[in-house]
Amino acid sequence: MDEKDREFWTETCQELIKESQNAISPLIGSLEGSEIVKTGADGTPTMYIDIVAEKKVIEVLESIDKPLTLISEEIGQVNLGKGQPEVVMVVDPLDGTSNAVKNIPAYGISVAVAPIPTNQKGPLTVQDIQMGFVKNYATDDFYAAFKGQGALVNGKNPTPSSKQDLSQISLGAYVYRMNMGKVEKLCKSVRRMRILGAVAIEISYVADGTYDAFVDVRDNLRLVDLAAAKLILEESGGIVTDRYGKALNGKLNVMEKTSMIATCNSVIHQEIVRIVEGIK
Q1: Tens digit of pLDDT for each residue in 3-31?
Q2: How far apart are CA 165 and CA 41, in angstroms?
Q3: What span, in angstroms and rounded, lies between the C-alpha atoms of 110 and 112?
Q4: 166-276 — its CATH code?
Q5: Contact between residue 125 and residue 252 where contact means Cβ atoms under 8 Å apart
Q6: C-alpha dihedral over 79, 55, 112, 12, to 10 degrees?
Q7: Which part of the chain is CATH 3.40.190.80?
Q8: Which ranges in the chain are annotated with CATH 3.30.540.10?
Q9: Are the C-beta atoms of residues 233 and 262 closer than 8 Å to each other?
Q10: For residue 157, what is the DSSP state?
Q11: What percent of the chain has pLDDT over 70?
Q12: Which residue of 31, 69, 197, 208 has the fewest CB atoms within a 10 Å radius of its CB?
């Protein structure tokens, strides 16, 4: 992706983020927004506010003069525009839906862009993503990353935590519908835990030191949820792997799932992997 294309897709992502935020604004904290209207392409319930967010994303992308493949939580995968798609865009139109309809200030959008090489034969993977954007609508914090060029948080380079002692870290985690006995040792090993229910935002929190680590050890985390934030954390100097410490290389599709350990540095990462290896 050359500089001209990078600028075009950056502007496009910024526009769809702005327009989608405006579209859902009247539904924040509302019963109307929380109405379950269908089952999404990933098999999970879809609220009305999700539909509004995704519809606006599609509307913006249909207005540009570039063909692309959109992968989104509700619609699944669809080609937009005429001609051979130039990029795959992976979008979670509303990260933290339950927070949004309850007006809990941790909800936003995640957008990742992967250019499609001319001679591409197989499906793209999360490793092919070159641009990632996450915005917390409730706080207006904006996270961005460009592969090989670093990350930005509100226009400034973020610095992950330098903590080396697991007992002193703040850990974000997804533990909903999980047997707490399985993660009890990890929970007891850290200083404090946070559970916000907004995966892309919480991974991004590791990039700027708000969290020291974030984990989801269920092997059931949707790739759509982490696609942009993974790049943001890695470009800030953090580490993202699956629960076994292996690099993530899942295919870019709405059904692809994984586990994840996202940390500020290798010392904390190794300690968490060591503990998680004992969780069955």
Answers
A1: 999 999 999 999 999 999 999 999 999 99
A2: 41
A3: 7
A4: 3.40.190.80
A5: yes
A6: 90
A7: 166-276
A8: 3-153
A9: yes
A10: -
A11: 97
A12: 31
Determine phi and psi for 108, rounding to 5 degrees.
180, -145
Rounded to whole angstroms, how far apart are CA atoms 48 and 208? 32
For the chain, what's the residue count?
A: 280
Mention every residue, 6+ apart, whose C-beta is less than 8 A from residue 151.
Answer: 143, 144, 145, 157, 158, 207, 231, 232, 233, 235, 236
Say what the pLDDT of residue 39 is. Answer: 86
- CB atoms under 10 Å from CB of 121, counted, come to 5
Q: What is the pLDDT of residue 225?
A: 92
Q: Which two tokens mark 64?
A: 């540009």
Could you tell me the two tokens for 58? 């599609």
Alpha helices in the chain (DSSP H): 3-24, 48-62, 97-102, 180-189, 199-207, 223-236, 266-276
**Is the separation of the CB atoms in 260 and 131 below 8 Å?**
no
pLDDT of residue 182: 62
Q: Average pLDDT over the chain, rounded to whole?
A: 93
Residue 83: pLDDT over 60: yes
The torsion angles phi and psi of 177, rounded to 5 degrees, stand at 60, 25
Task: Please provide the DSSP assignment of 100-117 as one string.
Answer: HHHT-S--EEEEEEEE--
Pick among 2.60.40.1220, 3.90.226.10, 3.30.540.10, 3.40.50.300: CATH of 3-153 = 3.30.540.10
Confidence class of residue 279 from pLDDT cuts 50, 70 and 90? Answer: low
Q: What tokens does 266 get? A: 């290798």
Q: Read off φ and ψ for residue 3, nearest 5 degrees.
A: -65, -40
Whether residue 221 is predicted with pLDDT greater than 80 in this model: the reply is: yes
